[in-house]
Amino acid sequence: MIFQNILYVALGSVLGSWLRFYLINFSANLWHKKYFGTILVNSIATFLLSISWPLFNKGIETYSSLGLFYIIGFIGSLSTFSTFIIEVLESLFERNWIRSFSMITYSLFISFTVGFIGLKIAST
Fold first, then answer.
1. In angstroms, how far is CA 100 from the centroid of its own chain?
2. Tens of pLDDT along 77-88?
3. Which of 4, 20, 23, 115 is the most exposed place for a label (fewest CB within 10 A)?
4. In which domain, by residue range, is 69 found?
5. How many domains does the chain have?
6. Is 72 helix (H, G, I), strand (E, B) or coil?
7. How far apart (Å, rounded) are the C-alpha atoms in residues 84 and 92?
8. CA-CA distance, 81 to 46, in Å (whole number)?
9. d(Cα 100, Cα 118) in Å, to the nearest integer?
10. Do the beta carbons of residue 92 and residue 100 sit within 8 Å?
11. Reported confidence tier of residue 65, pLDDT bands at 50, 70, 90
């Protein structure tokens, strides 16, 4: 049973981290700023989690095979909070206060907005 659970998490993680890698590099080539990609993947992960969260609250357990694959594996590896923090800290160390503040503001505003939209869609 433990091996099977590990396999579900691992499979979801491979897909989520591949998508994160692709989207961050795609956005870096498009906008020439890597932190836009971090904001993008965190926003997508927030939306996907928020739109599916009611399903997990109404019967599908987070630690079921689907929960392990999707929430812990896929969403967990798609989102990248630690990268966001490092990018903000780098900007702070460079004394780029406007970029640091903008990154925090945009990331939180966009994530809360798409999370709210996802929960509203899921509850209809």
1. 19
2. 999 888 899 999
3. 4
4. 2-123
5. 1
6. helix
7. 12
8. 11
9. 27
10. yes
11. confident
User: Which pTM does this prediction carry?
Assistant: 0.87
**What whole-number distance in Å separates Cα of residue 4 and Cα of residue 29?**
38
Nearest to 117 by CA among 55, 50, 65, 17: 50
Residue type, 18: W
Is the CA virtual torsion 22, 109, 98, 75 positive or negative? negative
Q: Which among 50, 40, 39, 38 has a CA at the least distance from the CA of 115?
A: 50
- Whether the Cβ atoms of residue 34 and residue 87 lie closer than 8 Å to each other: yes
With left for phi above 0 and alpha for psi between -120 and 50, is residue 79 left, alpha or beta? beta
Give the tokens for residue 14: 């491979």
Please tell me the distance from the alpha carbon of residue 16 to that of residue 75, in angstroms, as a whole number: 6
- 78, 41 contact by CB (below 8 A): yes
CA gap 63, 65 in Å, rounded:
6
* Phi-psi group of 22: left, alpha or beta (phi > 0 → left; psi -120 to 50 → alpha; rest → beta): alpha
Tokens 């692709």 identify what position? 22
Q: How far apart are CA 103 and CA 108, in angstroms?
A: 8
